[in-house]
Amino acid sequence: MSKLDSKVALVTGASKGIGAAIAKALAAAGAAVVVNYASDKAGADTVVAAITAAGGKALAVQADVTKAADGQALVEAAIQQFGRLDILVNNSGVYKFGALEDITEADFHQQFNVNVLGLLLTTQAAAKHLGEGASIINIGSVVARITPAGSAVYTGTKGAVDAITGVLSRELGPRKIRVNALNPGMIETEGAHSAGFIGSDFQSWAVSQTPLGRIGQPQDIASIAVFLASDDSYWLTGEQLLAGGGTR
Ligand SMILES: NC(=O)c1ccc[n+]([C@@H]2O[C@H](COP(=O)([O-])OP(=O)(O)OC[C@H]3O[C@@H](n4cnc5c(N)ncnc54)[C@H](OP(=O)(O)O)[C@@H]3O)[C@@H](O)[C@H]2O)c1
């Protein structure tokens, strides 16, 4: 008997990076997993193939989390395929760092739309189907705690994720649905490579701020997500778990 046997999970932005690792870890713990992607169908199909090859159940579903109708269709796909929903991981996110003078309206709206509005719309759609014991995990970031220079918009989105996590833990607590933020430090992902973080001075600075002396890998976050998804964390809600090797 595995920890998440008979549970159904939905992971947004699971075509790569942290989301892909979380989807695989939840499946390895017994959950059937909906692997959401926005544009990278091949990535999502690879994650589904890895899960099914290991004997698990998974389904890739395209949805842009910034669109309410997409969020509803995504949740409906989970219900139609697997009959229920127990775990929601709001992981989809975009990040673009830049100094105050470089902030644009477009960058603001893109990051707030995916990281904040997307989380709200997906949670709104999922909440209708979640029952007692369900777990919502919002992927935030340690940046909301350490507020690095040159990250006002992105850090603003993750500060909002922390705040919304607290609010929704109160709104959904009476239904015995838990809501926690899981906040990684720097993690080596496709997105971190594209953003130019890996091998940069920013990475060296991040390591210098990390007691455990390295940046993270997606699996470092996935195992904590399994804990937050499972009943092992049944007394935790409204928390902001820093998952950055001690970065704070
Ligand atoms: N990497 C880090 O250092 C780090 C640190 C702290 C927190 N985080 C957070 O962790 C999460 C994942 O980051 P990552 O580094 O793994 O990112 P990543 O490698 O760039 O992957 C991002 C994922 O989000 C999806 N996505 C983007 N826009 C979307 C939309 N409109 N609708 C649905 N999905 C969308 C992408 O889908 P497609 O590829 O299919 O388009 C992809 O699956 C983000 O919330 C990020 O802020 C990352």
UniProtKB/TrEMBL annotation:
Keyword annotations: Oxidoreductase
Recorded family membership: Belongs to the short-chain dehydrogenases/reductases (SDR) family.
Source superkingdom: Bacteria
Gene Ontology molecular function terms on file: oxidoreductase activity
Protein name per UniProt: 3-oxoacyl-[acyl-carrier protein] reductase
Pfam families attached to this UniProt entry: adh_short_C2 (PF13561)
Segments forming domain Ketoreductase: 7-190
